[in-house]
Design a protein that fits this description.
22% of the residues are buried. The protein is mainly β.
């Protein structure tokens, strides 16, 4: 994996950088492991615009990813590493000894021909999935479960890696990439290693068109709108509408805590914003 810069023959290509895709081994996904993905344009089932600045973009097919890693005790061989347009990480195709094929997130260092497994008895090697109670302290993990058997929900984007900090009774403390330290049940599964495609954060899009290819529309400020469109819109001249920054629905945007989940409050040992 690496980054290349094209020859700056015009203004749009002057600052563009691309991934070399040297780790990709095939361009065609497994047809049985894909399905269609409809574009919502940021609207919900009633047609209301609930997620602004979305729409357009290239048509995609969704790859079915095995986040649960529930084939315990069955060894698999990595047969290919592929590009996934729906996520920043690469995906690896596994061929299990019983003939089944599945996609997983490709961790850094995983190569074609490597043998990986999941379960209580699996070794602590890159790509293997184990419960947190079986993973040594200090190990870097990703694709961490929050609920037993639900599948990995934490640390799934390119370059992500969490560190197993401590184990106390039925819970383990995991330091997430944001800096937050969170308690997770020791029977929850996690995959050993760091998510691959580490150079993703260093890519420069270089032009607005590349964002449109991804379905991202131009973003304009609330103060540039009319009062009918945003609480901060309107006014003679450049003004913020005489009120604090807020969302289109009036929720304060700076310093206002929006987290409201008392059920999991005790699971956070150290917040990401702690000094």
């Amino acid at each position: 994996m690496g980054i290349k810069q094209i020859r700056p023959i015009n203004n749009s290509s002057r600052f563009q950088t691309y991934s070399t895709f040297e780790e990709i081994t095939t361009a065609r996904p497994q047809k049985r492991l894909t399905r269609g993905k409809a574009s919502t344009g940021g609207r919900n089932n009633s047609g209301s615009l609930t997620n602004w600045w979305r729409g357009g973009g290239h048509k995609r097919r969704y790859r079915e990813i095995d986040f649960r890693r529930d084939k315990h005790g069955i060894e698999a061989v990595v047969t290919s590493i592929e590009y996934d347009p729906n996520r920043t990480a690469r995906i690896a195709l596994l061929q299990y000894t019983d003939g089944e094929k599945r996609y997983i997130l490709c961790p850094a260092g995983l190569k074609i021909g490597d043998r990986i497994a999941a379960g209580e008895t699996a070794e602590v090697n890159v790509g293997n999935a184990l419960p947190l109670r079986r993973i040594p302290l200090g190990t870097t993990v990703h694709n961490i479960e929050l609920k037993l058997g639900k599948g990995g929900q934490l640390v799934r984007s390119a370059g992500g890696g969490a560190q197993l900090m401590a184990k106390e009774g039925d819970y383990a403390q995991v330091r997430l990439p944001s800096g937050e330290v969170r308690r997770v049940h020791v029977d929850c599964y996690a995959t050993v290693g760091q998510v691959g495609n580490l150079d993703h954060e260093n890519i420069s899009f270089g032009k607005a068109g590349r964002r449109r290819w991804l379905g991202r529309k131009p973003h304009n400020r609330g103060v540039s709108m009319n009062p009918v469109d945003h609480p901060m819109g309107g006014g003679e001249g450049k003004t913020s509408g005489g009120r604090h920054p807020c969302s289109p629905w009036g929720t304060p945007a700076k310093g206002f805590k929006t987290r409201n989940n008392k059920r999991t409050e005790a699971m956070i040992v150290r917040r990401r914003s702690a000094k």
